[in-house]
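anyone seen this seq b4? input:
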Amino acid sequence: MNKNLIEEEDEIFYSFVDNDVQVTNWARLPAIVETYTKDATKASNYNDVPASISFFVMLGQLCKDMIAIPSGVNIDDCRIQFAWLQTSGTGKSTLTNWYIPIIREAFERVNTQYGTQMNIFETTDYTDAALIGSYERRTEEVVDDDGQTRRIEVEAPIQGQLDGSGLAMWDEFEASGVFKQSQHKENAVVYLNTFMNTLHGETWIITKKLKMGDEPIECKCERSVYATTYIPKHLTTVIAEKGVLQRLLIFIYEVPQHQQQQMRRQLIADFGTIKAREKVQTKYADSFVKLYECVKERYDAVGGDQLKVIRYDKTANDALLQECILMERYITNSRQVVFEAMETFINRILKHIEKMAVLCCVAEAPSIPDKSKRFIVTDKHVLQASSLIRNCYKSLVSWLDEALREEKRGLEQKANVGAFKAEYRNLIKNPKGSRKLLKDGWVKKGILIEKVMAVTKRGNSTIYKWYAEIDEYFEETAMADKTKLVRLKEDWT
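predicted toks r here
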């Protein structure tokens, strides 16, 4: 990207020294997050962005029952829902393997000490029954009014694996049913869309009427999503048609060859060496438990009112507005198709910045000795959150731009855009019929369609379908008798 454009875009976040971009201290993540990320990337090389986000996914889940985020008359929870889409073999599963022991130990300790029931959902069975539950027939003994015992058959509900609190982890998110629907995973998108709604309301509860059971099965999923996958085919279609990815904080990255080479070199360097894992596991489990206890202390101090745990300085609103302006500016000159796709993400990304700003404030709380100065969200926390989430936003814009461009090229080739251009130009060079209709490059649309039909030997409906795929190359008008005329933009504008 052009240096001047970057400088204009990120002027309040970055400084430039000898043409190198350097993050200012103001935008650096909380110290505990930076240390965590440094250790995580020793296991999963170069994956610092998803490593940092994984910290906030866990922290948001730990705090969800104690922190509510107000937004006028609306209230949101502080869960971060994350999907990491990246080239195969570049460290996604490696980071997950490093991450799971930490969160499992932290959950076990918080559950034991505070009576919570958080765990990890990590299944490879994505059927409706496995996810949200089902009914099964059981035989139970009941005692009649006269004291006689008899056996009856009942339909008992079985909880699905999504039910409850903790993390919903998909290390193979491509098989979840989101990207490729199947008969047994037909409602995966609905379930995800539902439980990612705010917990402060009723719309997050998943219900479904099954063939068995008098009452609908009810799944109360309060989990945070941590999902990884390679970049699936038809992803642009999922973005355009299903809406579920807009609810997730997405980091999408096609790892360039030079970085894959660096990863391989590090893999070779690590061969045969032993690095302690248990100490790191305990260290960050300790950190998460400490953060939970710090928030719990504040939560108890405000009488268990989730809306009073966090306070908000006006500077946070100003910083959030600035970030919104930067995101809007970043796509101003994008192609229309990219602009339209990204417009559907901006509001959700702003919500993620708000949540992560709150969590940055939480992450710093134990390091502030004066308890009266803790839990106040300022512009600093918004900038910290933005410095991380901006990577997700830019990576998505960049990927969409290239993916949609490639998709367009494929459609153009399939739609024989070259045939339309060639036959249009032949009509201009060798006009037949009234020259009046060919003035200023206009030709009858019907004649152009007939010519393309003749050279491609395809039917009328196919040619019109092709034309719909490449119509942006042509401008259209109509005569008084409604006869449609077209002309090739690139030859006349």
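Residues 1-25 have pLDDT under 50 and may be disordered. Residues 403 and 481 are 41 Å apart (CA to CA). kinda curious what u guys think
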